[in-house]
Amino acid sequence: MQKHQTWTDEELKRLSELKGTGTHAEIAEKLSHEFNTTISSEGVRKRLKRGCKVAQAPLNYKNTKEILPNGSHRSDRLIEMSEEMEKDPSYLLRAHGYDPEMWELTATTWSEWGQHNRQDGTVTLYASKITIKPKQIGSNLDGLIKAIENIDPILFTYEQVETEDKRMLEIPIFDSHFGISDYEYYKQTQQKIIERLSSRHWERVLFILGQDMLHNDGFRGTTTSGTIIEQVDTAKAWEEARKFFEPLIELALSQYSVVDIIYSPGNHDEALGWAFVQMIKARYPQLNIDDRMEQRKAYVYGDNFIGITHGDKGRKDLHNIFPIEFPQEWAGAKSREIHTGHLHVEETKDVFGMAVRTLATRNRTDKWHRDNGYVGAHKRFMLFEYSEKELESIHYV
């Protein structure tokens, strides 16, 4: 005899007829004999408790999936299932198209439907509804930092070069989203930055790291807040970001410039972006690095004030927030800029002599932006060249 999997209409009809004619074990024995299958007394008890009627599924039953604001998913679909399968979270996840290694079940309900087809007649299906969330992985940040600390530092002989025409170059590669875009894609951009760095002696070079440099903040396809997004190979993205930035940092150091690094938290990669800066800090100890976990930071060069923030928080009030948080730096400047990212489109607002700039990105259009119609923006990064008095020029790379 075959092991019993699901109740057919004929079995349910016969079970209804046998109800009350004997014990569960006796009814199970009769049914097993009549339908050449193995039905347990426990199976009979549970089936009688639920009832013997099978509703008919509408032909247009619509399978649905929904992503909730907290990052959980809700799925509703017709699936085949046995009594054992309905207790198996892994089976339910796979039946709904989810990997049990990456997702965990938080709630499940189901109801039975009779589905008719010419080949099999009436087949019992289950309208299964599940709510799931991504599995939380333990933090491996300590191990990552330990590995970073073992990196051999690269030392450059530092020598201040005095010039009359002093300039500072800001390199804010905002929203690079390594993982969606790779090193080969950004190789031409890197070459353009090398050419700009090599074009003159820069008194100072400012790199801004973070700012959604990496697409995922971990290995489960989520942002910092746990929002489910397009999953990428994070280890590969990390290595390609390193391949992009390290030659630029080394070139700036080799030209005897003072090189500053500011870490600016993004909403995609707050933790891994910070860890990346720790790796850079260990490799190049002569860098001036601001790795504080602050949403807004300020940098002053001569008469220039540069406010830096990702732009996902307090965007509408930045022109009011920065003067309050950095009153001395703000008051002492004659040229004032605020540089933000996040929106993947270039935009400038001049508010009482203060330029609030949303910087462009060369990042490829990812699935979220494509699905929501955020397409068509110019693909480019922006470099800013300053004299001690003002912003002199913007270079697109």
Whole-number mean pLDDT:
85
The amount of beta strand, in percent, is: 25-35%
C-alpha geometry: elongated
The largest β sheet comes out as: 6 strands, mixed
* CATH fold name of the largest domain: Purple Acid Phosphatase, chain A, domain 2
Number of strands: 18
- Structural class designation: alpha/beta
Helix count, per DSSP? 11
- What is the CATH C-level name of the largest domain? Alpha Beta
Q: What strand order characterises the main sheet? A: 11-10-9-8-17-18
How much helical structure, as a percent, in the residues?
25-40%
Outline the low-pLDDT stretches.
none
What secondary-structure arrangement, pairings included, does this model have?
Elements: E1 2-3, H1 9-18, H2 24-35, E2 37-38, H3 41-50, E3 55-56, E4 64-67, E5 73-79, H4 89-95, E6 103-117, E7 121-134, H5 141-149, E8 168-172, H6 183-197, E9 204-210, H7 234-254, E10 258-264, H8 270-283, E11 288-290, E12 297-301, E13 304-308, H9 318-325, H10 327-331, E14 335-340, E15 347-351, E16 354-358, H11 367-371, E17 382-386, E18 391-396
Parallel strand pairs: 1-2, 3-6, 8-9, 9-10, 10-11, 13-14, 14-16
Antiparallel strand pairs: 4-5, 5-7, 6-7, 8-17, 12-13, 15-16, 17-18
Helix pairs in contact: 2-3, 5-8, 6-7
